[in-house]
Amino acid sequence: MCAVTTNRFATLLADRAPVFDGGYGWLLQERGLPAGDCAELWNLQEPEKIAALHDEYAAAGASVLTTNTFGGTAPRLAMHGLEDHVEAVNRAGAAIAREVADRHGALVGGDLGPTGELFEPMGTLTPEQAQGLFEAQLRGLVAGGIDLVLIETMSDLAEARAAIAAARAVCPDLPIVATMSFDTNLRTMMGVRPADAALELAAAGADVVGANCGRGPEEMSVIAEQLVAARPEGVLVLTQSNAGLPQLEGAEFVYTVGPQALAEHARSLRDAGVDVVGACCGSSPEHIAAIRAAVTA
Ligand SMILES: [Zn+2]
């Protein structure tokens, strides 16, 4: 018998297109969320607006819908006085995405973003505390019905590891996707290089490793090359580029990379060995529709 290692995410994705969804925060602001307000509170107060955006992404061809829970850990919710509602906010976010995903045959990725707290010795957060914060968030997400765990926009490997450990403790059967944001000279803000991220996140237990957000498609191409070269065998690579850096036009910031350009970029990433693509800030369902068409053509 030869041992065939199967990637849990690949098994779950099955014959769906390898396409995640795009940005949420900036679109929610366009749809009435005041800047600085708590996006996750809309899971409880404006669920139909979150569901509408999920529905648009699923209709555009996204196979994985990202729950509106990026800031769903207690320290982030505490900025809005909601630290006692971690379970409810996350369960509602997952349930909204679940209902939409089931109508489209899509999957739900339970989104974990950074806690916003600094680890020791720069801050006071310990790995055990961080894991506990992510576990509380995940209990809500699992109760709401997620299919996989999506850890994203991480800068600190210790925090990413804590999130992966939380997933392995709370929902050991769910695939884990972990991406970092390499937005500072091709490193994360904390100095992590793509190759080290690929190795360390995989070693911690991620089924899919990668990069999200960042400084736009050009840098993402360089980062993707390094991720693909370094990833261990059997581990998939995901990239979710933003639509460039926002440029000031008149009185407002606008993202300048349109759907077709981001789609051509996604196809070049796939040609370079990236397994799964999505998009981040500045992208919309139109971008995802173009990406879906480009990578499944
Ligand atoms: Zn982003």
Identify the quaternary structure here.
single chain
Task: Give the ligands present.
Answer: zinc ion
- First CA to last CA: what distance? 37 Å
Instruction: Give the CATH topology.
Output: TIM Barrel
The percent of residues in helical segments reads 40-55%
> SS-based structural class?
alpha/beta
Total beta strand runs: 9
| 3D shape | globular
Structure description:
This protein is of the alpha/beta class and 297 residues long. It has a single domain, classed as TIM Barrel (Alpha-Beta Barrel), CATH 3.20.20. Helices cover 46% and strands 14% of the residues. The strands form two sheets. Strands 1-2-3-4-5-6-9 form a seven-stranded parallel sheet. Strands 7-8 form a two-stranded antiparallel sheet. Helix 4 runs parallel beside helix 6, helix 7 packs across helix 8 and helix 9 packs across helix 10. The longest helix has 19 residues. The protein starts with 7 loop residues before the first helix and ends with a helix. The model has no long low-confidence stretch (mean pLDDT 96). The protein binds zinc ion. The site of zinc ion has 4 residues, from loops. InterPro entries: BHMT-like, HCY_dom, HCY_dom_sf. One of its GO terms (molecular function) is methyltransferase activity. One of its GO terms (biological process) is methylation.
